[in-house]
Structures are given as C-alpha cells and as structure tokens.
Amino acid sequence: MADLSVIQSATHAPQFDDAAQQREAATFGMWVFLATEVLFFGGMFLAYTVYRLAYPAAFAEASRHTLIAVGGTNTAILLISSATMAFAVRAAKERQRATLAWLLLATGALGALFLGIKGFEYAHEVSEHLLPGRNFHFQGPHPDHAQMFFYIYFLMTGVHAFHLTIGVILIAWFALRAWKTDAFAKNDTAVELLGLYWHFVDIVWVFLFPLIYLVNRH
Amino acid sequence: MIAETCVLPIKVEPAENYLNAEHSIRSWLLTTDHKRIGLLYMVSITLFFFVGGAAAALMRIELLTPRADLVTSATYNKLFTLHGVVMVWFFLIPSIPTVLGNFLVPMMIGARDVAFPRLNLASWYLFMGGGALTLWSIVAGGVDTGWTFYTPYSSTYANGHVIAMATGIFIAGFGSIATGLNFIVTIHKMRAPGLTWFRLPLFIWAIYTTSLILVLATPVLAITLALMALERIFGVGIFNPAMGGDPLLFQHLFWFYSHPAVYIMILPGMGVVSEVIPCFARKSMFGYRYVAYATVAIGVFGFLVWGHHMFVSSQSIYAGMIFSTLSFLVSIPSAIKVFNWTSTLYKGSITFQTPMLYAFGFIGLFTVGGMTGLILAALAVDVHLHDTYFVIAHFHYIMVGGAVMGYLGGLHFWWPKISGRMYCEWLAKLSAATIFLGFNLTFFPQFILGYLGMPRRYPVYAPEFQVLNVLSTAGASILAVGYLLPLAYLLWSLRYGKPAGRNPWQATGLEWTTQSPPLRDNFETPPVVTREPYQYDAQAAELEAANHG
After folding, report:
1. Fewest CB atoms within 10 A around its CB: which of A4, A78, B155, B442?
2. Contacts of B442 (CB under 8 A, 6+ apart)
3. What is the number of helices (H) and of strands (E) in chain B?
4. What are the DSSP E strand ranges found in B73-220?
5. What is the share, in percent, of chain B residues with pLDDT greater than 70?
6. Three-state SS across A129-180?
C-alpha cells in the first residue's frame, strides 16, 4: 500500500523535489496498488465464473438461499458511504476541518453498519448449515455444487469484509486526526487516497452483489 | 601488475559515504536508504542461494547412481521442492530487482531515493518474514509437492507443511508487489530533469517491465496459494474433482503468475547485459529503441503463454494451438535483443573484463535456452519432452545460464560502485570461466537425457543413463567451485581491494558520475540529463580530441 504517512507532512519528504512531485507519486502509487487489488480479486472472480458456467442450476438454487433484502440494504449503505466519502474529499480540499471530521465519521459508521449487518447475515447462514465444511447441509439435487457456491461466497465476501475493516479503521483514525489536529489543512492528498481505496472496496461490492444475490431472481 | 594489486593490501581512508555514514546494527535494520536496503537483500538472497544450492548438490550426488542409495524417494521429493521454492521465490525473483535494482534505480534516474523508502524497507521485512517461515517449514519436515504445489499433491494427498510454506511465499509475495510498486512510481515520477523515457538506460526499461509483471502477476499467485491452503484447512473442494472442483483451474491460476515470473527472472538479466555490452565494446547500443520496445513486448507476451505448461493436461487442443503460437511469438522480441547486442559488438573496441565475460556467457546460454524453448513450445514435440530432463535443462539455461549469469555480471560491473573497491580481476575471470564450463557440463547432458526419455523428479533411473548423469554431477561440482570463488574474493576486496574511483570502466550513466561508494543522497549536485544513453562514440571522440589537442 502507498506509504500514507509520508504524504501527511505539510512539507515534502526528503526524497522528493517538491510537494507537487510527492503528491503525484503518492496518487500514482495508490492507483498501482489498486491495480494489484483488481488482480487479487480477479483470481476469485475467475473461480466464480468457471464454476457458475459449469454448474448453472446449482448456483441459481444456492443463490436463492441468500438473503436478498439484507444484501440489498448493505448495497445501499455502501453506496451512501461512497457519497459521504466523496463529500469528505471535497471538504478536505475546501479546508473545512469540522465538516471533514463529521463526514469521515459518517462514512466510517456506515462501513461499520455494513460489517454488523454482514455479521448477522453470516450468523444466519451458519445456523442454516450453509457454511462449507462438515456441517454443510443443503436440500437440493447438487449439494456439492451448491457448497462450491457458498465457499466462493464466504471467501469473496470475507476478503471484501477484510478490506472494508481496514478501511473503517483508517477512516476512524483519519476522522480523529481531522478533529484533533490540522494534519490535512495544507495537504489533503491522504484523504483523497483514502477515498480512492474506499471507492474501490465499494466497487468490488457492486460486482459481488448481483453475482451472489441475483443469479436467478426475476 | 594485476596480480600485484590482488595481493597487496592497500590502506586508504574512504570519504564519507552511505556505508560509513552510520555504523550501528540499528542503522542497517531500520535504514530507508535504497542502497543499504539493496545490500540487506544481497546478504539475504546469498544465504538463500546457498540453501537452495545445497539441496541441488544433494540431488546431484544422489543421481550419481541409478538407485536411490543416498536418500529415500520421500526425501528426494522434499529436496527438489526445497530447491525449486527457495531458488525461484527467494533467490531468482528477488535477485537483480531487489539487489541491483534497489541500488541502481534511483541512481540511474538521478533521484535521491525511491518514492516510498519506508515501504521499501517493509518489503525486505516481508521478504525475510516469508523466507523465515519457508525455512521453518523445511526444518520442521519439509514439503514434497514440487515448487508448483499442484493439486491434489498439495491438497488431498499432501504430507508435510504445505500451508506454512505457502504462507511464507504468500507473505514474501507482498514484498515483491511493494518493490514493484515502488519502482514503477519512482521511474514515472522521479526522473532527473531532461531524462526522458528514451534517454533511460535499458536496465531501467528492464526493471520497469519487471515491476509491471510483479504488481500484476503476484496478486494472482497470492490468491491461488490462499485458495489451495483454504481447501486444505476447511476440506472444501475448489480444486478437488470429487467435490465438483477442477484441478486444472489451479494450474491455470498458478501459471498465470508463474510463467510471467520467468520474465521477472530473465528481463533484469537482459537489462544488465544491455549496460555491460556497450561499455566494454565502447559503442552506443545498436537499435536502442527496439531493445526498449522488445523489453516491454516480452513483458506483454509473457502474460499470454501460460497454457504452454499444460499441453498434456487435458487442456483443449485449440487452446494448446493458440498458446503454442503465442509462445513462438516471444522469440521475436528475444531475438531482437540478441541480434542488437551482437550488432553492438560489431567493430567495437572489445575488452574482456569480468562483466563482459558474464555478458557473453549470458548471450550464448540464453540463446540455447531460448531455442530449446521453441522445441518445447511445439505441441507434438512437447508430448514427448514434457516432464523430462529436457525441460529441466531448458529452463536452467534460461534461469541459471541467463538470470544467474546476468546477476553475477551485474554484481561485478557495479561492485566498484557499491563497495568502492576493485575485486581481483584474474580470480574473477577464472570464476566466470569456471561457472561457464561447469554450467554447460551440468546441464548439456540433461538435454540428451531428456530427449532419451529420462523423467524429472525421480531419484532412480534406468542404468543406461548413468554416464550422462555422472557427467552432470561432475559439472555441478565445478559449478559449485565457481559460485564459491566470488564469495571469497568479493569479501576480500571489501578490505584489500584497490580503490575504484568514480568510474573505473569509463562507463556512461548517471550512477558513474558520483563518488564510489556514493553519498547517502547519491549525488553532490542534482544531475541534469542532456543526451541519449550509451554515448560511447561521443565519449571516444572527445577523448580523441583531447589527446590531439
């Protein structure tokens, strides 16, 4: 991940010629990092695609066992959090410290809410014996193939939730700094890069939602 | 004269530089200086090289006789896994990028450091953490899957510490990603004024392309190993056909990383050769732009040929035909490079210093390795040669004959800059010749063995193969001597070597314009670039004019 702490000092780090070069380097570094993330998730999306093409009926049946209302609510929550994040980046640019702190707090809270709801959803699925492994039970013609769906489901949403957790922690830390210090007064690059990361995590969910919840619901 | 400088200790007080600026252990372990981090990597990968080499030595000794009389089959499986894992992930992939790349990238582009110095140090800690876990998994009992971790060897039927070793590689992989990210950003954003893309040294082009592969391919390896480990932990069957999974998916994902990884290993070596050849031929690089384009082309093609590892895996024959064709295409940019290096030599004033010997070795051995790659890329022939010693010989010509020769050549070329000292030239030439001879004696017989049908990864073989195997083991012994010699005389040079001065080879390139060893911030004054690289013709004309004037 791009070295966030380097870019928060109001002046520039010694390896750079000036603050502009530092800003460009940090931003570019974050984009390269997000490119690696695309490839990281790409392996899992490939696995999903391969098995959905191989077992369309089982994937459709398994998908109907997911909680679409919960998934839909979570999608809305993340989209709203992306909006508050975009406003936060704007506030950082406008040097509005208090607004920045409040917007970051709102974004972090929405992220935490998503994780809480996801937790309830996981608990429900575990109680329904949908967690792959020894306790997996599935009424239907292809329990093995349905198990594959739920394995990929838990894996991808789990890795996504892990990324989201890191995002929430960073946002909380940034909100605290925006509230207590004027760390972002002269340099808003760090907020912008955190925003990039947050939007990326949201976009991953935007792809996950239809692949998991909407396989065969019409 | 040369012999004299090699035995007389010369006492000099070096000027302040990055090596003597601070002396504490802490100043090394917490350094953010790209040059010191390069040296941390140098020490680490040297250690790993000798660990992996010891496993290879044991295998070669075992193969002296057709029977498994030194080690059991199970131990032999663990030895070739250890050798492959350590050599690929903990020596070859980090070798030139993390040692020479860390040292040289900021210096060659006229920067004070990489873009993210602390991330750079973190990369080394990730590398060492992953390496420690991998070494632990070896000591704790080893892994017998082969370095490819093919399922079901690694999932259903694995004996050993597969998860620990995969985790080690996973962690080290993030070190690779961070290094690649750092280099990409540094090369894009921190070049000296006037240093346009087509004024960059070809070594930078090579490291840049390598970094692109590192950041785009390594995450796929990470998720592949994670899937494999989770399959083992939770008993789900993403790669297990009994549960609806597909073991071929593992191979596709694995080679999507591991074929481009071959270019992570060879491209930096090509970069070194592109620096060494013009310097010791005293000529500008022939077709500079085409070599730069060819570097990027190899990187792009490298992502599109992974299926040639799977011709006999039940992959579709049509996919096989496409992968075969694309694999042939890789030879075009590779050949452009070889022809341009040899064209650079044409009518050059060639001198045969050690780095040049390694560069010559690289060109010859890489050509043999590349041409035999074409034989393997041919669908029908591959059915016969797949998983034989022909494959072993082919990729060792690329990875040892190419990548290791490139690393050693680069190490000798920039050693005066790194250490500020000259090594003993005649010993260095002797070791370069020893390595070349030992290498060929080790691996050329393996082409014949493979063609005759000897399969890889077995401690036993048919008695008629013994003569060629004994030759190969004899070659490996010579090779070992060749690898131990530089360890001795390079260390010796640190204390007793002749001071190198700024530019002992009269080379062009920004790194030679500063003192040796360089200052902490590399340059006394920030450099400005006004000309193309490799202006050896212009340099010769200036010297000529100065002599007549």
Report:
1. A4
2. B60, B396, B472, B473, B475, B476, B478, B479
3. 19, 0
4. none
5. 97
6. CCCCCCCCCCCCCCHHHHHHHHHHHHHHHHHHHHHHHHHHHHHHHHHHHHHH
Q: How far is CA A144 from CA A64, A149, A150, in A?
A: 16, 9, 10
CA distance B120 to B114: 8
* Distance in angstroms (rounded) separating the CA atoms of residues A157 and A150: 10
Distance CA B67, CA B441 (A): 22
User: Is pLDDT above 60 for B274?
Assistant: yes
Calculate how close chain B gets to A55, using CA atoms only, in Å. Answer: 9
Residue, of B300 and A2, whose pLDDT is higher: B300
CB-CB neighbors (< 8 A) of A144 in chain B: 237, 243-244
Residue B7 has a pLDDT of 57
Distance CA A83, CA A91 (A): 12
B455, β-bridge pairs: B388
ipTM computed for the complex: 0.92
B148 phi/psi in degrees, rounded to 5: -85, -10
CB-based contact A25 B115, cutoff 8 Å: yes
3-state helix, strand, coil in chain B (%, to 5): 70, 0, 30
E strand intervals along A89-210: none
CA atoms within a 13 Å half-sphere pointing along the CA-CB vector of A90: 7
CA–CA gap between residue B42 and residue B498 (Å, rounded): 22
Find chain B residues with C-beta within 8 A of A24's C-beta. Answer: 189
Contact A16/B190, CB-based, under 8 Å?
yes
Give the pair of three-digit tokens for residue B85: 């894992």
Q: pLDDT for A123-171, tens place per residue?
A: 999 999 999 888 889 988 889 899 999 999 999 999 999 999 999 999 9
Nearest to A37 by CA among B250, B220, B303: B220
Burial pattern A70-79, b for ≥16 Cβ within 10 A else e, equals: ebeebbebbe
Contact B416, B422 (CB under 8 A): yes
DSSP SS3 for B468? helix
Local structure of B187: helix, strand or coil? helix
Closest by CA position to A183, among listed A83, A100, A109 = A100
Q: What is the DSSP string of B53-84?
A: HHHHHHHHHHTTSSS--SS-HHHHHHHHHHHH
Output phi, psi for B446, to 5 deg. -70, -30
Quickly tell me which residue has 């985790």 as its tokens. B167
Separation of alpha carbons B35 and B25, rounded Å: 16
- Cα-Cα-Cα-Cα dihedral of B274, B265, B211, B308, to 10°? 110
What spatial distance separates the first Cα and last Cα of chain A, rounded to whole Å? 40
Beta partners for residue B92, in sequence order: none
- For B301-313, how does the pLDDT look when each residue is reduced to its tens digit (9 = 90+)? 999 999 999 999 9
Query: Does B227 reach chain A within 8 Å, measured CB to CB?
Result: yes
Eight-class DSSP state of B455: B
Distance CA B182, CA B117 (A): 8
Q: Give the CB-side neighbour count of residue B156, counting CA atoms within 13 A.
A: 13
User: Which residues of A are less than 8 Å from B181 in CB distance?
Assistant: 2, 29, 32-33, 36
Q: Tell me the CA distances in angstroms from A133 to A43, A155, B152, B417, B520, one per residue in order.
A: 22, 13, 18, 57, 55
Q: Which pLDDT belongs to residue B460?
A: 96
Cβ neighbours of A17 in B, within 8 Å: 526
Contact A111, A81 (CB under 8 A): yes
Average pLDDT over residues B373-395: 96
Torsion angle (degrees, nearest 10) of CA B225, B228, B230, B235: -170
Mean pLDDT (chain B) is 94
* HEC profile of A74-104: HHHHHHHHHHHHHHHHHHHHCCCHHHHHHHH
Residues contacting A158, CB < 8 A, separation 6+: none
Average pLDDT of every residue of chain A: 92
What pLDDT, on the 0 to 100 scale, is given for residue B533? 94
